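lol ok so funny story. i was supposed to be doing the assay writeup but got distracted and ended up predicting the structure for this chain instead. priorities right. anyway since i did it might as well share w the group, maybe its usefull for someone
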Amino acid sequence: MRKLLEIEFNDEIKKSILTVYAFSLVTFLMFFITRVVERSVFNLSFLIEITFVVVTLKFYARAFTNRNYALWGLTLVLTIYILMNILHYTFFEYNIFVLYLAFLAALFLGLNGYLMSSPLYFPRIQWWEYDFRYRGELKADIVVGKSEVEVRVADIRRECISFLAFEILPLGDIIELKIPYKKKVYQVSGKLKTQREDIPGRPIRYGMKLELKSDVDKKQYTELKKIWGLNKKANIRRKFADYTQSQEKSEL
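and the output, tada:
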């Protein structure tokens, strides 16, 4: 998987970087304090746990830097580790200071997860669905110069859009996106912020930050969010309906 390309460090990324540093520091401090409380330092279990914490935090920071999907698996592992400490020092060896650090680490971890879940970095794509007929994507066109390029919109959230295209588009450009739905064409514009090519030969994933300057733009965006959600649900229902029909035909 190739590294995500970005044109700039925006406010969200700066906050996220600070959050990762704070989380790593608090988590390591929590580990060390728990060992001091248990008076279990520099023995075999200490060496095993410190290796686990350091290695996991290192890979977490690397996955964050590269915007790699391994970030979410490591987030789950660290969540379990923090939860185990919360339960232990709540019901077995009550310690308010350890609990404070554990809840603080959980807060930083959750905050970074929220910041990174933006369509710019980690769009909600139905990666398990190989049949494109049943994916919750919307057909669209983007205006590049005097020509139009066909794309597929994969995610619409938090005033951002993620779309898939085979063409290489320049980051930083202001582009116009046209999404036809039923008898209406929705138009929004924004700056191209991120680009990722997961597999050579497959569509390139782009992240676009919308510019909602007028009430009309905001209304179009709100309607598009609803359409995207309804389209995903409709495709899921259609998939199960088609599967049911195929099963009935095979039994005849």
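Residues 215-251 form the longest helix (37 residues). The radius of gyration is 23 Å.
back to the writeup now i swear
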